[in-house]
């Protein structure tokens, strides 16, 4: 009987979720590469952390076995998740040189950028990103949406919309454009 309880103590028990996460827990459990009763395995714990990090939703992820045993003499797993900030705004400012000499002249351009990231919109780890970059010669805007598909194998649904405009000047420093490209 002691041998049997030693074997069951080396098995995954029920996973208990803690932390400040408002994530849909029943969907989260589908990402776990183990089930209660499976042999306790460090590789499965590492896979769990990898899958949760790929959601890009949590600020911190900790998973560890509890000190005690459950009623089936198995090790319950404690999954401690802290949700990351829901909204992020990033800005970029720079200068882009487009001529071969290094003299400061009309062959340069400002470069501005903005990224807006909205995470965990529907409490399932989805996120939407809006990126915009512009300079004197081009404008680039892209919107992306990524949503996990909760199966035993981690899959994602992703879509992207973009608008690009490029202006080709007649020569460096020219105010007139030879042609415009739109995508």
Model description:
The structure is a single chain. With about 180 residues, the protein is mostly beta strands. Helices cover about 15% and strands about 50% of the residues. The protein contains three helices and nine strands. The strands form two sheets. A six-stranded antiparallel β-sheet has the order 4-5-6-7-8-9, with no helix packed on it. A hairpin with a 7-residue loop joins strand 5 and strand 6. The radius of gyration is 25 Å and the shape is elongated. The chain starts with a helix and ends with a strand. The model has no long low-confidence stretch (mean pLDDT about 85).
Give the CA-based shape.
elongated
Helix-strand makeup class = mainly beta
**Main pleated-sheet profile:** 6 strands, antiparallel
H/I helix tally? 3
What is the H/E string? HEHHEEEEEEEE
Mean pLDDT equals 84
Gyration radius over CA: 25 Å
What is the CA–CA distance across the termini?
71 Å
Q: Looking across the biggest beta sheet, what order are the strands in?
A: 4-5-6-7-8-9
Tell me the strand percentage band: over 45%
- Number of β-strand runs: 9
Percentage of residues assigned to helices: 10-25%
Poorly predicted segments:
none
């Amino acid at each position: 009987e002691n041998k049997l309880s030693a074997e069951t103590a080396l098995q995954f028990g029920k996973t208990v979720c803690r932390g400040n996460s408002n994530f849909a827990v029943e969907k989260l459990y589908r990402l776990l590469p183990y089930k209660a009763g499976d042999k306790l395995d460090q590789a499965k714990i590492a896979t769990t952390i990898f899958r949760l990090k790929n959601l890009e939703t949590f600020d911190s992820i900790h998973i560890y076995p509890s000190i005690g045993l459950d009623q089936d003499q198995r090790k319950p797993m404690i999954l401690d998740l802290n949700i990351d900030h829901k909204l992020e705004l990033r800005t970029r400012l720079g200068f882009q040189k487009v001529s071969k000499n290094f003299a400061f002249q009309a062959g340069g351009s400002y470069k501005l950028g903005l990224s807006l990231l909205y995470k965990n919109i529907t409490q399932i780890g989805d996120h939407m990103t809006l990126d915009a970059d512009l300079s004197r010669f081009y404008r680039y805007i892209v919107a992306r949406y990524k949503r996990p598909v909760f199966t035993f194998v981690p899959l994602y649904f992703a879509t992207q919309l973009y608008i690009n405009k490029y202006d080709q000047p007649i020569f460096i420093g020219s105010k007139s454009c030879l042609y415009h490209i739109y995508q």
